[in-house]
Amino acid sequence: MVIYMKKILVIGSLNMDLVVNVAHTPAVGETILTDRMSLIPGGKGANQACAAGRLGADITMLGAVGDDTYGDILIESLKKSGVNVSGIIRRKGENTGIALITVNSAGDNSIVVVSGANATLSCEDIDRHRELLQEADIILFQMEIPAATVRYAAKMAKSLGKTVILDPAPVPENFPDELYRYVDVLKPNETELHMLTKTDRIETRLPEAVGFLKAKGIKNVLVTLGENGVYLDAEDTGVSKIPALKVEAVDTTAAGDSFTAAMAVILSQGKSLKEAAVFANQVSAIVVTRKGAQSSIPFLDEVTEYLSSL
Ligand code: RIB
Asked: Taking CA atoms, which of 168, 176, 248, 262 is between 20 and 30 Å from 187?
């Protein structure tokens, strides 16, 4: 059977992750020692592109790296994952983005990103690569590039009739409300949902917080809730709750990115958002059992093998 696959474009960040594993996340003013540090390809945009590529999608990445070795490594990692890298700009005189990540013994992380070349991705770059937006069917965004660029590109994507998916991570201080007009699917986690809607005690007030976003015009909202699974409010199937798979989490880095990408891959095959969310939940269950960002993202055959073992 031939499956018609729509084209996916990721517009976003690429980072080299400097990861330290620690017993616990350091408190303010605390110094702790560790002997483990790893360099792992990451960046929310690049992780999404990598996941889509490994899951067999027709995927292109538009973003910016510096003219340094980290940039070479990040581009190579995406190429090896089946991503078309023709939209990755090598910015002369800039450093590639770097993420400083601590992962504690529960697998939870905290991340500081030094944006570097990601911060230079401009509206002019989007204009120069307009054909990539024209050729794509589904366009994914996150918020590690300038918010003004996301807004400009999402507006262009919408006017070209594309399906726009926004993973609002990290939520910028001045999240541009105008963005809601251009987004078809919004995928926050609990923290991001709280930041976007200012709703406290999200765990007991999910329908209210999601209702706030739907009132802004978003037709489809998916909230990832970690070990509590996924809450989906979709235009076609209404509200569904998808339970998390029981796994031993060692590192949650890139779980959200992989979720968004896996969802887009299933949508690119013409399936429903609910089917997409179920598959995405399975893919991110694998990701959390492995260390690092792109080092933890599975290929399609690994997902198939995992699902047949359930
Ligand atoms: O979502 C995980 C990613 O966030 C890491 O790979 C890091 O680069 C930061 O962008």
From this structure: 248
Q: What is the pLDDT of residues 262-294, one digit of tens each?
A: 999 999 999 999 999 999 999 999 999 999 999
| Cα(55)–Cα(197) distance, integer angstroms | 32
188: nearest Cα among 159, 222, 161: 222
Q: Contact at 8 Å (CB) between 251 and 214? A: no
Cis peptide preceding 170, ω within 30 of 0: yes
For the stretch 211-255, pLDDT in tens is 999 999 999 999 999 999 999 999 999 999 999 999 999 999 999
The closest alpha carbon to 40, from 250, 259, 253, 282, belongs to: 253
DSSP summary character for residue 203: G
Q: DSSP H helical segments within the chain, as ranges?
A: 44-54, 69-80, 123-128, 130-135, 147-159, 190-197, 206-215, 255-268, 273-287, 300-308
List, chain by chain if needed, residues with CB within 6 Å of any ligand 1 atom.
13, 15, 17, 42-44, 47, 99, 111, 113, 144, 253-254, 256-257, 293
Least Cα distance to 125 among 162, 98, 152 occurs for 152
